Amino acid sequence: MSLTIKLTIAPRIINLNCHERNRTKFPAIRPKPIYHSNALNPILYNNKRPGMFQASVSGTVIKSSLIEPDGGVLVDVIVPESERGSKTLEAESLPTARLAKIDVEWVHVISEGWASPLKGFMRENEYLQSLHFNSLRMENGTVVNMSLPIVLAIDDETKKSIGSSKDVGLVGPEGDLLAILRSIEIYKHNKEERIARTWGTTAPGLPYVEEFIAPAGNWLLGGDLEVLKPIKYNDGLDHYRLSPKQLRKEFDRRQADAVFAFQLRNPVHNGHALLMNDTRRRLLEMGYKNPILLLHPLGGFTKADDVPLDVRMEQHSKVLEDGVLDPETTIVAVFPSPMHYAGPTEVQWHAKARVNAGANFYIVGRDPAGMGHPTEKRDLYDPDHGKKVLSMAPGLEKLNILPFRVAAYDTVAKKMAFFDPSRSKDFLFISGTKMRTYARNGENPPDGFMCPGGWEVLVKYYEQLQAEEAMPAVASA
Amino acid sequence: MSLTIKLTIAPRIINLNCHERNRTKFPAIRPKPIYHSNALNPILYNNKRPGMFQASVSGTVIKSSLIEPDGGVLVDVIVPESERGSKTLEAESLPTARLAKIDVEWVHVISEGWASPLKGFMRENEYLQSLHFNSLRMENGTVVNMSLPIVLAIDDETKKSIGSSKDVGLVGPEGDLLAILRSIEIYKHNKEERIARTWGTTAPGLPYVEEFIAPAGNWLLGGDLEVLKPIKYNDGLDHYRLSPKQLRKEFDRRQADAVFAFQLRNPVHNGHALLMNDTRRRLLEMGYKNPILLLHPLGGFTKADDVPLDVRMEQHSKVLEDGVLDPETTIVAVFPSPMHYAGPTEVQWHAKARVNAGANFYIVGRDPAGMGHPTEKRDLYDPDHGKKVLSMAPGLEKLNILPFRVAAYDTVAKKMAFFDPSRSKDFLFISGTKMRTYARNGENPPDGFMCPGGWEVLVKYYEQLQAEEAMPAVASA
């Protein structure tokens, strides 16, 4: 496969002058590896094929030609280093609002342009459009998708302390000034309406609602962000958190002529891999010469029983190490958004953010961003609505939607395969819950369900979790 | 005012040839009057000014030039009289679904093109777009507004009886075959999600939900309608139920160069009248020569404590008779839609349907289609959201939105006037509830609140209501 790429991308290396080629020796993206292998930039560490570097330009912004960011320009509201001092001084003079951890995740998301053209937390005008139409109308009449309200809740006391100030300093959970919010607007946070229109239910037990909306203040604070420095988590995973700008650069460097994004918040099993590899095969058949997979695990808030990000990243790493996915044509990076579990509404956000990161193909599966109904024995969303709504969503017409083919465990072939309804009894569906149950009980899933290295990561995680869970019980006994 | 019109419309009468002028002696719309006066077509009954007739063409469809119907063509799915027999025979051979009264109201709405380009009850594709985006994307990429799901619910038994039939006969509450639904699709009726996304709440006590959704079946039946004959109610008000086609014809006949629609479900008081007359004045100032008011009370389902349609029509009639509104420049007709009380979602429907009827201006007030929260002591919707959402709504860009100025009773001038915040203590706000309380208690509102003739209609209605309400109590005593 790599040979094919080397040959086929050659004709595209025509627009770069000598000066630019020389600069490619200093690639801008050089994450330090964690775990046993780093899947991120295999070419950077495998310097045997210099031809692959010719399109890379470090230090300058290359606009990926595959797909325009929403609104035409990728938002970047991180204050340049030269202005950091003066802006920080100014921020210190302003009334402040305290951010929760979830708010910092959104500051991160907005600051790098995932939500382009959104430049800050939504004002009411944007909030209402998002809530009612899942989209924003731009001044020139074009429409961009915007399905989730990206808002900052404040309480009465904070509202009072802001008074009539036009700008507000945003303070992180540790008390450090993170950003300035400009030309602010304060408006009512009607939680019930927000929840009903975003989730299509107001039943108690929605993870994002219980954690962040129910306890939040009754006001929303909108305005334009100026983020004083890039948001970092110092959890050993920051190098995986490539911004849309960095991803676009990397796609250009690799001379991708198609980028297909795979959103996930679960470990990768061989069914996922089959699907991603099959997508690549289909894209090659369609005439694309160098389709690149963006394996893009969600890195923000997830519900308590989901596998944590660090474990998932290690598992993904193993999947590439074990050769289930091809590192040559795969980029693994973290999508910094929190998870809403809002099904058809959220899948639009997942897709839209990847458009901003330069992906022009998006894989969508059964029940994306779905979960069980919190109070009834059924799926919260019709499992087919996600892909249907995504294919109709305003502002996403330019994105190629690739609906999932259902993969299941073929007990005859002893591997994950596309489900064949003509011999349905041969297939075993292994849900995320089932997979976690196997791992938790120390049982092995059927051979060929997941690569052994990846499975081991999960088993170790659940062993450790059970040991930790057992601790207090021992202590209290 | 009428003199002005006569003079100013003259220059527009230039495109009609002699043949067409001769045909204007037989106007197509000649409703029979009910009540003391009929406001509908004063010019037809006041044949003193033949110059006013010159633009009228009977028997042919005149496409009003003011505003295109959504989708470009006004939907009309009423079977031509010549095919009625054969279609009825065919309908008798089909499996059937029984319609509730509310469904018949929707058949009426769809059949005349109020919901253009919708040609029948929504299939899932349309339902999902309506629910998530309040709009439909047409095949040519344009977007039309469609904020309320217009759907037909059926139960398990009906679904079973339909089996694999492609077409279904629709049977009215009295057992008569009303329509055929073609190329049907049956899909799940997720009531919770429909309610949450339409109303922004799932609180018990929403009138439309309690009456029609809660008891409805778990399936939705979509398809293209063929309505066997025009829907009539035989309640003495059918002549007020002008179709969009008839209204467009009438606007053209009157040579309107602007049509401004006023949706209402309450009696007209002098604050409303002030607003409508002021709107006309503003339109004249803007250079329009002949703005016509479409006073357009909603005629379908309303909640129990709203004033019934027949009483409202009599009250509206009095308002015109008493000269509060000018019959020369006003058309009173009934909008056959049922009421959802779904605030910002529903106001889009109210506006969109009037676009289809040829109105290019729409007056929107405080809290349109709103009501009190069914379980909390507050308005269900932010009173400003209706006009904000309407001004942002996809597909309604072509409509001129005229936001309400708040009118209140000026206790100094002793009349309804635009509220002047600089002397707010002089103003008295009389809500619909307050007005009904006055009428119910036989008290008079302040002088100048409503014309005496109109007020008398209300007092009589409540006297009669109280008499009826007292009856069972007397009987049981």
Automatic annotation (TrEMBL), chains A, B:
Its main location: plastid. Keywords: ATP-binding, Chloroplast, Nucleotide-binding, Nucleotidyltransferase, Plastid, Transferase, Transit peptide. Residues 67-229 form the ATP-sulfurylase PUA-like domain. InterPro entries: ATP-Sase_PUA-like_dom, PUA-like_sf, Rossmann-like_a/b/a_fold, Sulfurylase_cat_dom, Sulphate_adenylyltransferase. Pathway: Sulfur metabolism; hydrogen sulfide biosynthesis; sulfite from sulfate: step 1/3. Gene3D superfamilies: HUPs, Sulfate adenylyltransferase. GO terms for cellular component: chloroplast. One of its GO terms (molecular function) is sulfate adenylyltransferase (ATP) activity. It is found in: Plastid, Chloroplast. Its EC number is 2.7.7.4. It catalyses: sulfate + ATP + H(+) = adenosine 5'-phosphosulfate + diphosphate. Residues 239-461 form the Sulphate adenylyltransferase catalytic domain. One of its GO terms (biological process) is sulfate assimilation. Belongs to the sulfate adenylyltransferase family. This is sulfate adenylyltransferase. It comes from Populus euphratica.
